[in-house]
């Protein structure tokens, strides 16, 4: 409850920060894009982990406001770089279920990218597979609209959801991210087989595949052998502040 109250105040005071973690080309370490991650350092409560405050925000109906504020921070960062004539990178924003299915989701994205003068192709939306895409028809329409407006999309935590792999071919998404629990356990034959299947599936559907939570040289080597080209994880970079990202 304390967290819920403070979170509301923090959102009003715009205290929620954004960190960026690169998605890299596994073979070279070259940065391909970034993922934006919410960070909260409360003057009253100290540092609170997103695993704690994201569920609170979801329960309290604040998640959309939080994710919209992260989007604005990212757009502002991109605009500053664009104005300075610096190179832009694509940035992925995590989008919760309620936010994804909310009627203002697409209009807000279109409106804000136009306001900041940032082309939609620089913004990617990551939606967790855990939602199971119960309402597959609506999900299809939302992904299709994102595509039509030129936004990139991604299915996060892939492999942990409750749906079969077959629904994936119906969704017009450009990327899937293999959940880090699988990357962690690739030494097990069964898990390795799952990772191999996901990579082949993505390839067959013409989607980009990203391995999450790459922590070791061994994992990198195995992923490359399986034909996975892009990864994200502590082996390459930890999430960093916008200022740190500017130094890359
Ligand atoms: O950032 P890690 O560094 O600790 O994030 C923990 C979890 O919180 C991850 O599952 C991540 O996807 C989630 N998370 C971080 N920022 C956001 C956000 O803005 N929205 C949503 N829905 N989840 C987020
Ligand atoms: O309509 P609703 O009450 O769900 O709107 C919630 C929030 O979404 C409001 O803050 C509103 O300003 C925002 N919103 C809805 N549609 C748009 C839009 O097209 N552009 C912008 N900028 N904000 C919108
Ligand atoms: O669920 P999502 O993919 O959005 O989660 C991103 C989360 O994963 C963040 O909490 C981020 O800090 C964390 N993360 C990123 N790379 C690694 C890694 O190599 N190992 C572990 N354990 N966590 C990671
Ligand atoms: Mn994510
Ligand atoms: Na994930």
From TrEMBL:
Per UniProt, residues of the EAL domain are 1-248
Where on the tree of life does the source sit, at the highest rank? Bacteria
Name it: EAL domain-containing protein
């Amino acid at each position: 409850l304390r967290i819920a109250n403070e979170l509301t105040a923090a959102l009003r005071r715009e205290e929620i920060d954004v960190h960026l973690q690169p998605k890299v080309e596994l073979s070279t370490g070259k940065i391909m894009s970034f993922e934006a991650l919410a960070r909260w350092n409360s003057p009253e409560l100290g540092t609170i982990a997103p695993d704690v405050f994201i569920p609170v925000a979801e329960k309290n109906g604040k998640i959309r406001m939080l994710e919209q504020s992260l989007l604005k921070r990212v757009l502002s960062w991109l605009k500053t770089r664009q104005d300075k004539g610096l190179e832009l990178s694509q940035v992925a924003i995590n989008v919760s279920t309620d936010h994804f299915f909310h009627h203002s989701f697409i209009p807000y994205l279109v409106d804000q990218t136009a306001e900041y003068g940032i082309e939609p192709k620089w913004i990617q939306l990551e939606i967790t597979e855990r939602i199971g895409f119960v309402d597959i028809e609506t999900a299809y329409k939302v992904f299709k609209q994102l595509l039509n407006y030129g936004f990139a999309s991604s299915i996060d935590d892939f492999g942990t959801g409750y749906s079969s792999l077959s629904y994936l071919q119906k969704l017009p998404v450009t990327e899937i991210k293999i959940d880090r629990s699988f990357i962690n356990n690739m030494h097990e034959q069964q898990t390795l087989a799952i990772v191999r299947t996901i990579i082949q599936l993505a390839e067959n559907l013409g989607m980009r595949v990203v391995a999450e939570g790459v922590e070791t040289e061994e994992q990198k080597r195995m992923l490359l052998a399986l034909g996975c080209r892009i990864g994200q994880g502590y082996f390459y970079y930890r999430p960093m502040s916008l200022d740190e990202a500017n130094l890359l």
